[in-house]
Amino acid sequence: MSKFLEGFVVLFSGVDELKKTKAKEAVLRYGGKCVDKYTKEVNCGVVGKVGSAGFKELLNAKVSILTMKWLQDCASTKALAPVESPQYKVGLFSGLNVVCTQFSIEERNQLQETIEANYGTFSDRFVGNMCTHLIAKTPSGDKYMGAKKCGNIRIVTMAWVEECVKQKGMQNYISLLC
Q1: Using an 8 Å Cβ cutoff, are 7 and 33 in contact?
Q2: Are residues 10 and 33 in contact, defined by beta-carbon separation less than 8 angstroms?
Q3: What is the pTM of this model?
Q4: 158 and 107 in contact (C-beta within 8 Å)?
Q5: Are 56 and 169 a contacting pair, CB within 8 Å?
Q6: Alpha-carbon gap, residue 115 to 39, rounded angstroms
């Protein structure tokens, strides 16, 4: 049997127990090692939920943080899938679809760069059922009103984005505009 995960020390974080048990079996079968807490020997994280307990430690350690799909693809092909591939990367804003309003072009470009550098999706157009977060300067305007009507879109400020990046983790929605 191929041992293509030899040398990998994997920490799972934010993965439900049943999936984690099966994933750990796969890591061990293909020559890797699993740990339950972060140590300096961890060189790979598999994350099911951004913001989970181990996620911040993995970010701080600057190890590869990957999706369960990476491990599934490794197991199905019985070969190492590329850890550097963007399709497997997990970042601070993974899973977020962000729109902004009331910002200058320079500010908008900076926000887009920050969101995308942290694996979030940035859009110029507000589509209610696709948007998870609206970054706004003030509680006004069409996008703001649309987000309020949807009811499930987080309305945040640029300060929230900056604090998430600074703290390397999702922050409480203290700066939520109402």
Answers
A1: no
A2: yes
A3: 0.73
A4: yes
A5: yes
A6: 28
